[in-house]
Design brief:
The protein is mainly α. It has 3 helices and no strands. α1 packs antiparallel against α2. The radius of gyration is 28 Å and the shape is elongated.
């Protein structure tokens, strides 16, 4: 698998972990009394809630570090922006030439069919 696909998968993993972490915290966090004017919230005993945020945040940090490692493994661009723009222009010119040749061949093939 190429590095770009790995980066995409890692971003998906980070998003999934973040989504699940926030959802779990919303669902399982003990209620908090917002004001003395409000009644005491009902107890919501969750035995292992104290460990959940630690485990989920550790998984999220691990995924982020893996993403950083993948980014660091990307090849560096050679020659800077000007060299890249020049290479893009060269590739575009090559693409245009190939496209014109293909168009000529298609026209020739269509012309031969009519005869």
């Amino acid at each position: 698998m190429d590095i770009i696909s790995q980066l995409q998968e890692q971003v998906d993993l980070i998003a999934s972990l973040a989504f699940n972490t926030i959802g779990t915290l919303q669902r399982d966090a003990p209620p908090v009394r917002l004001s003395p004017n409000y009644p005491e919230p009902p107890a919501n005993p969750t035995e292992d809630f104290a460990d959940q945020p630690k485990l989920m945040s550790a998984a999220l940090v691990k995924a982020a570090k893996q993403f950083d490692a993948l980014v660091a493994a990307l090849p560096l661009a050679e020659g800077g922006e000007e060299a890249q723009l020049k290479r893009i222009a060269e590739l575009q010119a090559e693409n245009d030439a190939v496209g014109q040749e293909l168009q000529r061949q298609l026209e020739a093939a269509g012309h031969n069919k009519k005869e």
